[in-house]
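Possible regression after last week's pipeline update?

I re-ran a chain I had predicted before the update to compare outputs. Posting the input and the new output here so someone can diff against the archived version. Not blocking, just want to make sure nothing changed silently.
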Amino acid sequence: MSAVEMKSHFIELFRKNGGQLRMSEAIAAGITRYMLYSLRDKGIIEQVSRGVYRLVELPPMSNPDLVTVSLRFPNAVICLISALSYHNITTQIPHAVSVAVPRQSRVPSLNYPPVQSHRFSNEAYNSGIENHKIDGVSVKIYNPEKTLADCFKFRNKIGMDVVLEALKIYRSRQQYNLERLLEYAKICRVKNIMTPYLEATI
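New output (post-update):
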């Protein structure tokens, strides 16, 4: 295979994977580190984060922080204020990407974007996960109801005013789901705390 054919082959591999690959995935597909660096130096791919590359031809990322964290840490689930922001149920602007990981897992850490990691029990971690396609990447994010329950659990860290504002915005929507809210409140062990606020919003 000529150099030109190899370059076309590797570009096609990127395209088949949504235009983005972790270095480990690229190497497993037969792209050497040298070829990756060569493609980068020629301006064909760009380094999104350490060990994560994407084709330059792709449109700009709509949410690069969530995509970068999800590519680097596939087990991390976007939670708390980052999830509120994704679901448009807060006026807060996240200063870091909040993620949940299983209690026994290694805590994710990045220089950029900054990451705030939280260890969840197995049931709390596994409940309410949705997979959203962002810029061609599958990103795990807790659904709005699970996110609100998590926010009540971490109310001392994020502020009760933020939690109540999110509940108010969520309540104003047509798809208000009290049953789901109570289900996740029970899983997160905040049912007694949440119930008075939920009853006040009925």
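Follow-up from reviewer: compared with the archived run. The chain has two domains: 3-55, 64-201. Marking as no regression found.
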